[in-house]
Design goal:
Keywords: Membrane, Transmembrane, Transmembrane helix. The protein is mostly helical. The chain has one domain (about 5-30, about 50-80). Helix content is about 60%, strand content about 0%. It contains 2 helices and no strands. It is flat and about 70 Å long.
């Protein structure tokens, strides 16, 4: 048996072990226990009265300001 043939068999064995280990991990996650989770979400608050950072309008305005600042810095003021 040549050295390359032995290495290819070892690589094949390692690949088979990794594949079987992956299948075992996937099968272990199929069934989850029945957990009784009570999530209390307060939807009565208005968008501005709730958490400020969860408001999508704040994120949009912040992104626009950031893009504007980057554009102004990259432009260099236009003085020549």
């Amino acid at each position: 048996m040549t050295r390359t043939n032995l290495l290819s068999k070892i690589q094949f064995l390692a690949l088979a072990v990794v594949a079987n280990f992956t299948i075992v991990l996937i099968k272990a996650q199929e069934k989850t226990p029945d957990l009784k989770v009570d999530v209390n979400v307060n939807k009565g608050e208005s968008m501005m009265g709730g958490d400020l950072m969860s408001n999508p309008l704040v994120w949009i305005i912040g992104a626009l300001v950031l893009i504007l600042m980057i554009a102004l810095v990259a432009r260099g003021g236009g003085n020549k």
